[in-house]
Amino acid sequence: MNNLFIGVDLGTTATKAVLFTLKGDIVAQSSKGYELHRDGTGMAEEAPEDIYQALIETLHELSEKLSADDEVCAVSFSSQMHSLIAFDEFWQPLTRVITWADTRAVAYTEELKNSGLGHEIYSRTGTPIHPMAPLSKLLWLRHEQPVIFDDASHYLDLKGYLFWRLFGVNKIDLSIATGTGLFNIFEKKWDTGALDTTQVKLSQLPEVVSPYQMERGLKPEIAQQMGLPESTPFVWGAADGPLSNLGVNAIAPGVAAITIGTSGAIRVVTDKPGVDPKARTFTYALDEDHWVVGGPVNSGGDVFRWLRDNVYAGELDFDAITAETAKVPAGANGLIFHPYLGGERAPLWDANARGSFFGLNYTHGRAEMARAVLEGVMMNLYMVALSLTEVAGKLQRIQATGGFTNSQLWTQILADIFEQPINVPESREAGCLAAVVMAQKALGLVDSLDVISEMVGVSDTYQSHVETFATYRELTPIYIRLTRLFEEEYKNIADFQRK
Asked: Which of 30, 200, 244, 350 is deepest in the core (most CB within 10 A)?
């Protein structure tokens, strides 16, 4: 009998399911995309039914690839963070999935920050005060959607919703809970002060469970649709950010994980929760014994997509744009780009932040603009790293994952700006692999998460190019100073745009 495991990644634009062996080798994978609904108000929502169907379909596709000798020992989950769905007393959804990218709560976030109460809540919850967090989303619902707020009897995140559909349980895993802004990371319970601020009752929130908890007993019709036995254990798993560290073997002290997909982040693991006195970083749980400190950025692959669709008007694909960009020298001939097209989380924590090209002259064309975009995303990530080192110490090693590692040029730019080698693990499905390792620990098949080191090798190491150091050492401080200058006007231009 072949013991296999399925890791599921509930992403912002797609759900991916990957079938692994006990040793972490990929057998098969499936992915289904869905729409992220956006508009000019800052809305960023998804239809929960779309994601539920994507889960069913991806698992069904994998089940069709199983042989008679294969057994799925468990299905385990990695999930996007900060999502929120409101339900009435009969468990009918009152909202779609309000995602991390939704910025409609900006006014209430600023009010909370300015009151001083926001910093107190951050100091207990480890979640920065920002529209991404369910804390802020609940304030927005209370003020802007009072009928929904008054009718809401239950609140869940996306993964909690799916487990409710599959098993009828009302739960949330510890890892996801620590990213809500409502959970006290030191007392390991829902934070009374945060609930008082939002006017949400404890009875409206789910039970917090270990990432290693399992649910069994799929509803027969759902099991049939998935092609899995009803007895298949479903492990809760954790949030995608912390799991990315595990999935790239970045759980030792001083080892940073950098991920860039639709958005991005840089994170390191510690053995206990702690917060930044300047409130620049987050602290989320991987599990009860591993805590991830880092900073998330909105500006990742979404910005590259914007470049393709708008600057290049869809004329070239990503590979062709990258090939054109590679002909431009480091520094884009003196062009700087701030990638804050949808506001920014770390390092600014400002939903009003807006993007800009600075230094444009007659010598610049779209290739220079493309180079500046790629460099701007990485310079922004470098700013986050500077804050992180103050909180968690010097970065000893960097492990990189996410779609950006498919681009040799973009990964090389990262190595050159950070002036450090960048290791790219063999497994590009880090979140799914990490979820599977958690499932193996939940089943007692492994004693420690350190087993990941036996599953993750290094496929590529990008060494820094010394000849670019002078260029980036000169431009990066300008980039940082400009961010501080523009910060004074972000709210004014954002208010104008919202009109």
From this structure: 244
